[in-house]
């Protein structure tokens, strides 16, 4: 009996150690019922729905997105997106982990992050040069944003001047950070190609850039 108890304890310790090392997951390829995932930048592997890979369980997958669980907490991945998982680990995670998120620079030298706008998943480009959170009307319509009741103005784009609606988004979530009533702009058309996480969100956080990482922390 003592031997069995020791073995069980050893197994549980090993599982905890694997999970504690999970810091990021990237979706390399997405299929119906399976996804190719890279954990911590390691060698990608095809994982089938319901199976676990290095402490990350694939709950479901289609050609657009995959839902993963770490310690029972869901995260949504889109193709070639990377999500940090520090905030999802450990069950009763420290309050600092729940109130901050660490981003990693991509191959272009930019910071991107998965987030949610009013609960709908979206992929942001972090842009400290943007005064507002900015989306194109194509992106806003796709996630069901009601923006046309906002103040109509104009914005300068690469193609010239375009109508823009200035309004407030009820809630934006990045990692474990939730902010409410964020000033935003929706530009008619397809610009910007990727939603911009601008200063109406970033300005309410502490930002720290160190090498290839950027930490966003709730004040």
Task: Write a brief caption for the model.
The protein has 219 residues and is of the alpha+beta class. It has helices at residues 2-20, 95-98, 137-142, 199-202, and strands at 24-31, 34-39, 45-48, 52-53, 56-61, 65-70, 73-78, 82-84, 100-104, 112-117, 120-126, 133-136, 151-157, 160-174, 177-187, 196-197, 205-210, 213-218.
Can you walk through the features of this model?
With 219 residues, this protein is an alpha+beta fold. The chain folds into 2 domains: 23-97, SH3 type barrels (Roll); 99-219, Acid Proteases (Cathepsin D, subunit A, domain 1, Beta Barrel), CATH 2.40.70. Helices cover 15% and strands 50% of the residues. It contains 4 helices and 18 strands. Strands 10, 11, 12, 13, 14, 15 and 16 form a 7-stranded mixed β-sheet that branches. A 4-stranded antiparallel β-sheet has the order 3-2-1-8, with no helix packed on it. The N and C termini lie far apart (51 Å).
What would the keywords be for this entry?
219 residues, alpha+beta, SH3 type barrels, Cathepsin D, subunit A, domain 1, 2 domains, seven-stranded mixed sheet, four-stranded antiparallel sheet, 50% strand, globular, disordered N terminus
Secondary-structure topology with pairs:
Elements lengths: L1 H19 L3 E8 L2 E6 L5 E4 L3 E2 L2 E6 L3 E6 L2 E6 L3 E3 L10 H4 L1 E5 L7 E6 L2 E7 L6 E4 H6 L8 E7 L2 E15 L2 E11 L8 E2 L1 H4 L2 E6 L2 E6 L1
Parallel strand pairs: 11-16, 12-15
Antiparallel strand pairs: 1-2, 1-8, 2-3, 4-5, 5-6, 6-7, 9-18, 10-11, 10-14, 13-14, 14-15, 17-18
